[in-house]
Amino acid sequence: MLKLDNHLSGRHFLHIPGPSPVPSRILRSISYQTIDHRGPEFGAFGLKVLDGIKKIFKTEQPVIIYSASGTGSWEGALVNVLSPGDKVLFYETGHFANLWRALAKRLGIEVEVVGKAGQDTWRWGVDASVIEERLRKDTQHGIKAVCVVHNETSTGMTSNIAAVRKAIDDAKHPALLLVDSVSGLGSADYCHDAWGADVTVSGSQKGLMLPPGIGFNALSPKAIEASKHSKIAKAYWAWDEILESNKTGYWPTTPSTNLMYGLHEALDMMQTEGLDKIFARHQRLAEACRRAVAAWGLENQCLDPNAYSPVLTAIVVPEGMDADVLRKHALEKFNLSLGTGLGKLKGKIFRIGHLGDCNELSLMAALSGVEMSLGAMGYKPKASGVVAAQDYLK
Ligand SMILES: *Cc1c(COP(=O)(O)O)cnc(C)c1O
């Protein structure tokens, strides 16, 4: 037996911004016996899951389900619609935008990074006017796609995807809109069709409350058309064979049968609670968390109130404090797991995830653990963040 569970009594408070805690209902469903993925039962099950996931993306178009992490699904999006040497615009919002861009580069795609001049782009949401301006200059339409991260998990910022679509349209540019909503989907409102995304990339381990291991590409008719002319070599990631098999509820290769059981259960749970209620719950918890941060006298990494994330809050630690030492304390003393600072923010911030299967009391526990850990670091908060959050939530 792997000793993954440490010796601490009580439950583990997993408050990183993904993977998020997996509800026991989902864990139980994943433990059902694996069945024949070519058998008669599986086709009906597959069709049900393929239909259910569309409602989460708010799309009428097909959604590809890969056995892969979010990163694999990033690759799937790019290799299906682009050709070697194609130019793609990436708006830099943080570490995940950079990782996606680095992956594109490895695929032989020419990347261009944009961001608002004079602004720390890791603290503000996407400024769509920057994209519009750049596309207007591209009179030859050399730019084939615009890539943006809906919810930037490294900085706690949610960007306005409809505004990016409008910017592309206002510039009268044919570029495809590729969106990463790995951590946004299921926690922050997302409308694949209404917002005009061409490919939306997502994963299982964030708002969908599943373990890591399955990823998604939601498609548009324009993306499917582009995939017919794309020249990047692809086999496993190719949409055509998957779409063909999916018509009858099957996959060309063995799908993650047991994770699909979990997805089926998650879809049921989400439909029962209702997407609007889920999004409102995330907004409420995020606001409570921000009130705690303000009471502590600390700064939110996100300086843009329009971009505050309902999924997580990234908190800047005071000068001289190492955020990873604080995190280590929270884990060892309180069995509380907080998100680390990624890329250039290492040691400077920590992140509190309040996504997925999270409620008022689970957030209060996390805030309490943070408050005690701040105290242990010798920091004297302005006021109690726990009380401030309670005052808001009650
Ligand atoms: C978690 C995450 C990913 C990466 O997914 P993996 O499953 O780790 O490959 C990509 N983008 C964002 C915004 C994420 O939060």
Task: Write a brief caption for the model.
By secondary structure, the chain is an alpha/beta fold.
Largest sheet strand order: 2-10-9-8-5-3-4
Ions, cofactors and other ligands present here are: pyridoxal-5'-phosphate
CATH architecture annotation name of the largest domain: 3-Layer(aba) Sandwich
Helix content: 40-55%
Got a strand count? 14
Sheet of most strands: 7 strands, mixed
List keywords for this structure.
394 residues; alpha/beta; Aspartate Aminotransferase, domain 1; Aspartate Aminotransferase, domain 2; seven-stranded mixed β-sheet; globular; binds pyridoxal-5'-phosphate
Fold and architecture overview:
This protein folds into two domains: 13-21 and 274-393, Aspartate Aminotransferase, domain 1, CATH 3.90.1150; 24-271, Type I PLP-dependent aspartate aminotransferase-like (Major domain) (Aspartate Aminotransferase, domain 2, 3-Layer(aba) Sandwich). The chain has 13 helices and 14 strands. It has helices at residues 24-30, 40-57, 70-81, 95-106, 128-137, 161-170, 221-227, 239-246, 257-273, 275-296, 323-334, 360-376, 385-393, and strands at 13-15, 63-67, 87-91, 110-114, 143-149, 151-152, 157-158, 176-180, 199-203, 214-219, 299-300, 312-316, 336-338, 349-353. Helix 2 packs across helix 9 (257-273) and helix 11 (323-334) packs across helix 12 (360-376). Pyridoxal-5'-phosphate binds next to helix 3. Pyridoxal-5'-phosphate is lined by residues 18, 69-71, 96, 149, 153, 180, 182-183, 203, 212.
